[in-house]
Amino acid sequence: SENACEKTSFAFLRQELPVRLANIMKEINLLPDNLLGTPSVRLVQGWYMQSLQEILEFKDKNADDEKVTYDFTDAVIKIRNRHNDVIPTMAQGVVEYKETYGTDPVVSQNVQYFLDRFYMSRISIRMLLNQHTLLFGGKVKVNPAHPKQIGSIDPHCRVSEVIRDAYENARNLCDRYYMNSPELVLEEFYATEQAKPITVVYVPSHLYHMVFELFKNAMRATMELYGDAMEYPAIHAQVALGSEDLTVRVSDRGGGVPLRKIDRLFTYTYSTAPRPSIDGARAAPLAGYGYGLPISRLYARYFQGDLKLYSLEGYGTDAVIYIRV
User: Fold this and answer.
1) Where is pLDDT greater, at 93 or 271?
2) Which neighbouring-strand residues pair with 157?
3) What are the catalytic residues?
């Protein structure tokens, strides 16, 4: 909250983090031996073990000692940075497993179930780590770019600003790849009052992640369908605020997806694009592991919302993000 206290946060996290880390480590241990044996999964497992050990060192330390809380914040930052690449590394592990042992429906279903839980756990742990480091780490107590934010939470998140930001960045990728990109038509709808821009209490980075993913998909579908045309149909984004939900709809005219394939788009082991190679260059590919949609859906569900796709094959796709207000 706004009057957060570092001691309270320290006392909470040193109890809570080991529990969350240990729970997910137990689940990792239940993976099929062949998947557990891949270099990438073993690497991830090692990160989690190291992080758990580092947090446990603070179990009995004195919370009133300023040096202890300072060291703890340092440890939290180190842990957060260590886990930066968990998603692509775990994805690489699944790829290594598939390339060596092939894939069957039962294993795919079990891996899907595990990855949903694993990545959701990661979102919740990162949320805690980020709150602590943003509120108590570093010299600057208030982020000059976002002075009203409480850690990573923005009590007045301007939805359309985040959407435009995500569109511009997706558009840059699209321009680099296809030498062109569709325009954006953005509209806001209020159930009650008009005029001021729609705001919501939310984590802007989560909203950005979801919308950026939807724009990338919409742009790719549009550009692939229209090929070398000079004109491309615009992507439409609509933001609607009701009494219970804030809804964001991203609509494209990229030809749509048959119903039979919709569920597949949310599986971790499925991507329609060629697989990226992991290398030192951190350029975000326009498409790749096929993790964008399932992880975006987890971000939506983390705060009791959802993400759904509705497609008109032969015309285009509507992707809808629901956020509880």
Assistant:
1) 93
2) 200
3) 209, 213, 216-217
State the pTM of this model. 0.91
Report the half-sphere exposure of 91 (CA within 13 A, side-chain side): 21
String of DSSP letters for 268-285: TT--SSPPPPP-S--PPP
Helix axes 105-136, 86-101, angle to 10 degrees: 170
Q: Counting beta carbons within 10 angstroms of the beta carbon of residue 197, is it exposed (0 to 12), middle (13 to 18) or buried (19 or more)? A: exposed
Q: Which of 199, 194, 171 is nearest to 184 (CA)?
A: 171
Q: Give the amino acid at 27.
A: E
245: enclosing H helix or E strand: strand 245-252
Predicted confidence band at 277 (pLDDT cuts at 50, 70, 90)?
low
pLDDT in tens, 137-180: 876 556 666 678 899 999 999 999 999 999 999 999 999 999 99
- Token pair in block for residue 31: 């993976």
Long-range contacts of 133-140 (CB under 8 A, 24+ apart): 133/73, 133/76, 133/77, 133/80, 135/4, 135/6, 135/9, 136/4, 136/6, 136/9, 136/69, 136/73, 137/73, 137/74, 137/76, 137/77
> Cα 260 to the chain's mean position, in Å?
25
Q: Is 153 helix (H, G, I), strand (E, B) or coil?
A: strand
Task: Specify the 3-state DSSP secondary structure of 209.
Answer: helix
SS3 content of the chain, % helix, strand, coil (to 5): 55, 15, 30
Which tokens in the block code for residue 255?
């030809």
Count CA atoms closer than 13 A to 287's CA, side-chain side: 19
**Hey, what are 4's tokens?**
């957060």
pLDDT in tens, 93-148: 998 998 899 888 888 889 999 999 999 999 999 999 999 999 988 765 566 666 78
Task: Determine which helix (DSSP H) or strand (DSSP E) holds 296, and give its type and residue range.
Answer: helix 292-302
List residues bridging with 70 in a β-sheet.
none
